[in-house]
């Protein structure tokens, strides 16, 4: 069963926080202001919430109480362990705690008195990157090798763990391919987009797993054999301008076996994994004794989905370990409950290993339960659709029943449509009425009219088939558990109905701007050129997703004004000053074009006021400012989203965003030719050139290729934009074109032919 124990997070309110510093209870090398401290607490809470292991409550700490507890127990009041013990003691004494997360309109957990959604949960608050407080010095050793392989590294403490992974790769000169994970005593952190269940590494920072001297964690890396490294926090140094990733010392090389040895190591590693996982998997298999021949297949599917989610969360080996363990116990313990376990796991996680386990059990003559043939044997029956007034949120409900059974169960997929359609929540329930009430509740609280109606199974198929591959990183843990079942159900839906997509052109967007200006009276304090600018920005933004030029909605406005504008446009003082009035006028006009009621317009006006209040902080963010420099020479001539999207994709291929540790802390702007070439020089340093290859020749070729791609009017740039339109980002493209320029000479007939071949998409990539 899932762990449901309440977890507690310690928190110093502002006054106690200052007292803690004054009394020396916190490490001064980690100093940050209280806003950054709250931001880190919120990020840690969000990371903890992804594992689904029970509710979280916040315990407010007071300095006198902590000092008294330390004196009473004879502990060091500056130790993190003392603080943890104090938190536990407070819980035993029944101290007041605050549930996290609060409701969006409830008071914030931090005690500020503001609403949660406008305080610690505000996107603008979390978007700000806190100043890096310290440098963590780690000794990292490769486990299980005869000759010691180790590195001593210094890494900024606020480094996201996906970047820390790349730093450790560089330190050990590890191959780039292969999976990775970080493991602590509390949870597993996994590569984003890996399909493994755990805390995504891009949402967790190094300081969360290495806090005090002596703290340890494990770092796993590799293909086939998964190498384990043990990292120990040796030293905490103050931050500052020189606080960058540095390899301080080390010795030994990561083992590099011949191909045959690599295969043997991979096989040995898998067999070792099977043996090491067998006992844990056998314990999980025990729970299948309760599923006799007459068991409900729905019960089996739900139990198995929860098991897979729990195993991925609690075991570093993840689903591979589960499959290998299943193979091991199928041979060592061929029993009916093991056969039930393997059949259920193979249903939701089919593969060669679980298939082999089924074969081995059949060879042993072990009977499979009667329900094994019914798993997933369902037919789709009815479907409903929901869409809010603005088109920001959609949902699809589909009912299913097992063949020959009148009872129905349902899946409900909630979709956030902005900036691109993404699954935000997944529900699975035996009660179709309960799922319909979820939709009805959303409809009752929405501003303005909604679509809430029964639809066809073919329409539901078209709405769900593609979006299930795009899952929000914030998807609740329970939703992740249901995904395998939901995906199998969606595969059973009929072919989607053919739908001709709506096509909106630049001319449509320009016409919308003209229509708005003709219908809008002059605004006090807003110049006509400023009003036109914001109309062009809002209409032009729809060029990135193909929606109607008059698209409007609270979430959509948050994306356009909170991300698109700060990353794209250098605003004049007049344009910034006119934002609220001009956008509010556009929202009212666009809402009228969409047939939205006055209540919806009020919702939009309130949202614009929130965005305007937080805009300056988002606009000043260094990452967004650096992104603007890619387009600073283009935006004076066009605000159309399609033009800007294509140019940005091309230029980030021409000059990649600087990697951590490549450059100095001094910001570099790609709009400046000299800075652009500095970024390229750092990029070249990350490439592995053979001793026989001339660095000077490669540098010249790289600079020439990048300069051609930067120039939107060059033939190479136009062909590359067309290529990127079809395939999306291609991290290898700049290096490949540079290599062709070194080999053939830029601009030669051979280069042009080879480049054209490289820019021809593989049909399989387009499938």
Brief overview:
The chain has 767 residues and is an alpha+beta fold. Helices cover 47% and strands 14% of the residues. The protein contains 28 helices and 16 strands.
Would you kindly provide a written description of the structure presented here, covering whatever features stand out?
- With 767 residues, the chain is α+β, with helices and mostly antiparallel strands.
- It has 28 helices and 16 strands.
- It has an eight-stranded mixed sheet, with helices on one face.
- The longest helix has 28 residues, at 259-286.
- The chain is globular.
Q: Whole-number average pLDDT?
A: 84
Structural shape: globular
Count of alpha/pi helices: 28
- Helix fraction, binned, reads 40-55%
Largest sheet properties: 8 strands, mixed
What's the arrangement of strands in the largest beta sheet?
8-7-6-9-10-4-5-11
> Measured on Cα atoms, how large is the radius of gyration?
29 Å
First-last Cα distance: 41 Å
Q: What amount of the residues lies in strands?
A: 5-15%
Task: Identify the notable features of this structure and list them briefly.
five-stranded antiparallel β-sheet; 16 strands; 767 residues; globular; alpha+beta; eight-stranded mixed β-sheet
Q: What does the secondary structure layout of this molecule look like, with pairings?
A:
Blueprint: E1 7-11, H1 14-22, H2 34-49, E2 56-60, H3 63-73, H4 80-92, E3 98-100, H5 123-127, E4 134-142, E5 150-156, H6 161-172, E6 179-183, E7 188-190, E8 199-200, E9 216-222, E10 227-238, E11 246-251, H7 259-286, H8 297-314, H9 318-332, H10 336-348, H11 352-363, E12 378-387, E13 393-402, E14 409-416, E15 422-429, H12 432-445, E16 451-455, H13 457-464, H14 477-491, H15 506-519, H16 528-541, H17 554-568, H18 573-577, H19 579-593, H20 598-620, H21 622-628, H22 641-654, H23 673-685, H24 695-710, H25 715-727, H26 733-744, H27 749-758, H28 763-766
Parallel strand pairs: 1-2, 7-8
Antiparallel strand pairs: 2-3, 4-5, 4-10, 5-11, 6-7, 6-9, 9-10, 12-13, 12-16, 13-14, 14-15
Helix pairs in contact: 7-9, 7-10, 8-10, 8-14, 9-10, 9-11, 10-11, 15-16, 16-19, 17-20, 17-21, 19-20, 22-24, 22-25, 23-24, 24-26, 26-27
């Amino acid at each position: 069963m899932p762990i449901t124990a309440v977890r507690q997070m310690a928190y110093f309110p502002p006054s106690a926080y200052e007292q803690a510093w004054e009394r020396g209870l916190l490490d001064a090398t980690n100093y940050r202001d209280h806003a950054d401290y709250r931001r880190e607490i919120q990020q840690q809470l969000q990371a903890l919430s992804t594992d689904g292991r029970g509710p979280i409550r916040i315990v407010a700490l007071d300095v006198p109480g902590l000092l008294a507890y330390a004196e009473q127990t004879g502990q060091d009041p500056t130790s993190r362990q003392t603080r943890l013990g104090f938190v536990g003691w407070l819980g035993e004494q029944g101290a007041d705690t605050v549930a996290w997360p609060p409701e969006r309109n409830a008071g914030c957990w931090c005690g500020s008195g503001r609403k949660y959604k406008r305080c610690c949960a505000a996107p603008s608050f979390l978007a700000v990157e806190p100043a890096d407080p310290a440098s963590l010095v780690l000794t990292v050793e490769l486990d299980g090798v005869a000759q010691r392989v180790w590195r001593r590294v210094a890494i900024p403490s606020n480094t996201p763990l996906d970047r820390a992974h790349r730093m450790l790769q560089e330190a050990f000169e590890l191959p780039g391919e292969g999976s990775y994970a970080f493991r602590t005593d509390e949870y597993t952190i996994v590569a984003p987009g890996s399909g493994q269940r755990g805390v995504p590494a891009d949402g967790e920072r190094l300081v969360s797993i290495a806090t005090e001297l002596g703290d340890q964690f494990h770092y796993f890396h590799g293909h086939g054999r998964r190498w384990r490294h043990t990292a120990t926090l040796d030293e905490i140094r103050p931050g500052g301008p020189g606080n960058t990733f540095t390899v301080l010392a080390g010795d030994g090389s990561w083992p590099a076996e011949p191909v045959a040895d690599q295969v043997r190591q991979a096989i040995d590693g898998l067999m070792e994994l099977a043996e090491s996982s067998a006992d844990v998997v056998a314990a999980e298999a025990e729970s299948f004794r309760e599923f006799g021949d007459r068991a409900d297949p729905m019960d089996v599917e739900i139990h198995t989905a929860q098991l897979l989610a729990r195993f991925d969360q609690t075991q570093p080996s993840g689903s591979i370990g589960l499959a290998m363990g299943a193979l091991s116990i199928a041979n060592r313990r061929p029993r009916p409950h093991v056969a039930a376990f393997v059949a259920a796991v193979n249903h939701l996680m089919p593969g060669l290993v679980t298939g082999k386990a089924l074969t081995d059990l059949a060879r042993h003559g072990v009977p499979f339960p009667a329900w094994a043939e019914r798993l997933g044997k369902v037919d789709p029956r009815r479907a409903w659709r929901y869409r809010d007034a603005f088109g920001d949120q959609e949902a699809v409900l589909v009912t299913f029943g097992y063949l020959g059974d009148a009872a129905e169960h349902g899946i409900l997929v909630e979709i956030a449509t902005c900036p691109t359609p993404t699954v935000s929540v997944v529900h699975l329930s035996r009660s179709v009425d309960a799922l319909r009430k979820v939709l009805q509740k959303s409809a009752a609280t929405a501003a303005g009219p909604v679509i809430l109606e029964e639809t066809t199974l073919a329409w539901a198929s078209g709405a769900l088939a593609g979006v299930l591959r795009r899952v929000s990183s914030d998807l609740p843990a329970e939703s992740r558990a249901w995904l395998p079942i939901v995906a199998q159900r969606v595969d059973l839906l009929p072919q989607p109905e053919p739908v001709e997509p709506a096509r909106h052109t630049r001319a449509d967007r320009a016409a919308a701007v003209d229509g708005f200006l003709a219908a809008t009276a002059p605004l006090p304090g807003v110049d006509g050129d400023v009003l036109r600018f914001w109309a062009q920005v809002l209409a032009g933004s729809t060029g990135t997703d193909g929606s109607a030029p008059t698209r409007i909605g609270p979430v959509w406005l948050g994306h356009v004004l909170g991300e698109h504008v700060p990353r794209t446009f250098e605003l004049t003082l007049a344009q910034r000053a006119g934002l609220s009035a001009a956008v509010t006028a556009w929202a009212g006009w666009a809402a009228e074009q969409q047939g939205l009621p006055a209540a919806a317009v009020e919702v939009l006006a309130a949202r614009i006021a929130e965005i305007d209040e937080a805009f300056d902080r988002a606009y000043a963010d260094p990452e967004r400012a650096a992104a603007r420099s890619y387009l600073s020479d283009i935006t004076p001539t066009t605000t159309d989203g399609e033009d800007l999207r294509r140019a940005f994709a091309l230029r980030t291929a021409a000059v990649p965003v600087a990697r951590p540790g490549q450059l100095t802390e001094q910001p570099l702007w790609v709009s400046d030719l000299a800075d652009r070439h500095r970024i390229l020089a750092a990029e070249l340093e990350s490439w592995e050139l053979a001793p026989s290859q001339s660095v000077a020749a490669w540098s010249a070729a790289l600079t020439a290729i990048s300069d051609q791609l930067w120039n939107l009017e060059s033939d190479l740039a136009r062909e590359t934009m067309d290529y990127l339109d079809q395939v999306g980002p291609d991290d290898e493209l700049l290096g490949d074109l540079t290599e062709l320029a070194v080999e053939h000479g830029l601009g030669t007939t051979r280069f042009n032919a080879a480049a054209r071949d490289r820019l021809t998409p593989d049909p399989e990539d387009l499938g």
